[in-house]
C-alpha cells in the first residue's frame, strides 16, 4: 500500500514539473504584444534617426514593448556625447559612423564609451544625386567626362547658370542636402562631397585646411544656406533647388510616385557610397540584447526593407534600383573626418 502511495506521489511530482515547463514555454512565446518573438519581456527604448522614422514606427506597431523616440542624429549625438549614463536608452538606430562619432567625442570629454562593440550593418542605401533634367544637361559640359559629381557641383555652386550653358531665368546653381550638423544623412552626403573633391576616402582634418578645398567648400556651403532637401525639390520645384544629395531609400520611392518623375534624374556618383544602418546597443542597458533581437530579427529587417532600405534576402521595393551593385564598404572617410567636416560646415554658414 505504501509503495502505491509513493508511486502516485512521484507521478504527481512529474506532472507538476511538466506543467511548469509547459507554462514557461507558453510565457516565452506570449509576453506583451509581438515582442515575445524576440525572447524576454518588458519595455525597451529605441532612439531612431529621423530618416528612419518610417521603419521605427513600423517596429513599434509590430511590438508594443518597443518605445520609440525619433529625432535628428545630430540632436541625439549632442546629448549622448556628454551623458553620464545611458539616460534610459537601450539602443540607437542610425547610420554608421554616428555611434563612433559619439564615442570619440566622449573620449575627448574624458568619458567612457557609451556603446557596445561594433554593430553589424542591418540595411544599406546608396547615396544619390537627384537633378532636374534640363539642369543636368546644362551642367554636364562642366563635369569631367560629363559625369555628375559633387566636385563638379561645388565648382559651379552659386554661379549664374547662364555662365555654364544654362538659362538666365534659372538664376544661380543651387545645390542642396539636409543640414550635416544635425541630419544623419546630410553628414554622409557632405563626406561624399569631400571624397569627390580629394579623390580618396583617406581623409584627415589637416587636409581640410587646404586653400583650394576651403574655397570650394565655402562656395558650396553658402550657395543655398537654407539646406533644401529632396522633399523641397518635389514640393517647390527648381526655384528652390537644382540638385539634391540624399539616399536612394528617400529619392527612389519618392520620385516613383511624383508627378515630376519624368523631369528628374537620379544618379549614383562613382564610386558609389552608402548609408549603412546599424543598431548601436548601449553597453550595460537592461533591454539592449532584447532590442537587438527585435530590430535585427524579422520585425526590424522587414520594416527597414519596406522603407526602401536594401536588406539581404528581402526583395527591393519600387524605386530601389536592381542594377546598381553596392560596394563592400561605405566608401566614406573615417568618423573623425566626418565630424570635422560637420564643424567646418557649421563655421562656414
Poorly predicted ranges (pLDDT <50, ≥5 residues)?
A: 1-39
In terms of structural class, how would the helical and strand content be classed? Answer: alpha/beta
Question: What would you call the shape?
Answer: globular
In this structure, how is the largest beta sheet organized? 8 strands, mixed
The first-to-last residue Cα distance is 94 Å
Percent strand equals 5-15%
The number of distinct structural domains comes to 2
**CATH architecture heading of the largest domain:** 3-Layer(aba) Sandwich
User: What is the H/E string?
Assistant: HEHEHEHEHHEHHHEHEEHHH
Identify the quaternary structure here. single chain
CATH class category name of the largest domain: Alpha Beta
Tally of helical segments: 13
Rg, alpha carbons: 25 Å
Would you give an account of this structure?
The chain has 13 helices and eight strands. It is α/β, with parallel strands linked by helices and 349 residues long. It folds into two domains: 33-124 and 276-306, D-Maltodextrin-Binding Protein, domain 2; 126-274 and 325-348, D-Maltodextrin-Binding Protein, domain 2. Strands 1, 2, 3, 4, 5, 6, 7 and 8 form an eight-stranded mixed sheet that branches. Helix 2 (53-62) packs antiparallel against helix 12, helix 3 packs parallel to helix 4 (98-108) and helix 6 packs across helix 7. The longest helix is centred in the first third of the chain and has 27 residues, at 2-28. The protein is globular and about 65 Å long. The N and C termini lie far apart (94 Å). The model is unreliable at 1-39 (pLDDT under 50).
Amino acid at each position: 500500500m505504501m509503495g502505491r502511495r509513493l508511486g502516485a506521489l512521484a507521478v504527481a511530482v512529474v506532472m507538476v514539473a511538466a506543467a511548469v515547463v509547459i507554462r514557461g514555454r507558453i510565457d516565452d512565446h506570449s509576453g506583451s504584444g509581438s515582442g515575445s518573438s524576440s525572447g524576454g519581456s518588458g519595455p525597451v527604448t529605441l532612439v531612431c534617426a529621423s530618416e528612419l522614422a518610417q521603419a521605427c514606427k513600423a517596429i513599434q506597431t509590430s511590438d508594443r514593448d518597443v518605445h520609440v523616440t525619433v529625432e535628428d542624429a545630430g540632436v541625439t549625438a549632442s546629448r549622448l556625447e556628454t551623458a553620464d549614463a545611458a539616460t534610459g536608452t537601450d539602443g540607437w538606430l542610425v547610420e554608421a559612423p554616428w555611434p563612433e562619432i559619439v564615442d570619440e567625442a566622449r573620449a575627448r570629454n574624458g568619458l567612457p564609451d557609451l556603446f557596445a562593440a561594433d554593430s553589424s550593418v542591418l540595411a544599406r542605401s546608396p547615396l544619390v544625386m537627384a537633378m532636374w533634367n534640363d539642369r543636368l544637361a546644362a551642367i554636364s559640359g562642366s563635369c569631367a567626362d560629363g559625369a555628375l559629381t559633387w566636385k563638379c557641383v561645388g565648382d559651379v555652386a552659386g554661379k549664374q547658370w547662364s555662365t555654364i550653358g544654362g538659362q538666365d531665368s534659372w538664376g544661380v546653381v543651387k545645390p542642396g542636402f539636409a543640414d550635416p550638423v544635425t541630419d544623419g544623412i546630410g553628414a554622409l552626403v557632405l563626406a561624399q562631397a569631400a571624397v569627390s573633391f580629394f579623390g580618396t576616402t583617406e581623409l584627415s582634418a589637416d587636409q581640410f585646411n587646404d586653400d583650394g578645398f576651403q574655397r570650394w567648400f565655402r562656395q558650396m556651403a553658402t550657395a543655398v544656406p537654407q539646406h533644401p532637401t529632396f522633399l523641397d525639390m518635389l514640393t517647390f520645384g527648381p526655384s528652390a533647388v537644382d540638385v539634391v544629395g540624399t539616399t536612394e531609400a528617400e529619392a527612389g520611392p519618392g520620385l516613383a510616385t511624383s508627378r515630376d518623375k519624368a523631369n528628374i534624374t537620379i544618379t549614383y556618383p562613382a564610386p558609389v557610397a552608402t548609408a549603412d544602418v546599424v543598431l548601436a546597443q548601449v553597453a550595460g542597458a537592461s533591454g539592449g540584447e532584447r532590442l537587438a533581437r527585435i530590430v535585427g530579427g524579422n520585425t526590424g529587417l522587414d520594416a527597414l526593407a519596406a522603407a526602401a532600405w536594401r536588406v539581404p534576402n528581402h526583395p527591393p521595393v519600387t524605386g530601389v534600383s536592381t542594377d546598381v551593385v553596392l560596394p563592400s564598404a561605405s566608401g566614406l572617410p573615417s568618423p573623425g573626418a566626418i565630424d570635422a567636416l560637420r564643424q567646418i560646415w557649421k563655421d562656414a554658414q
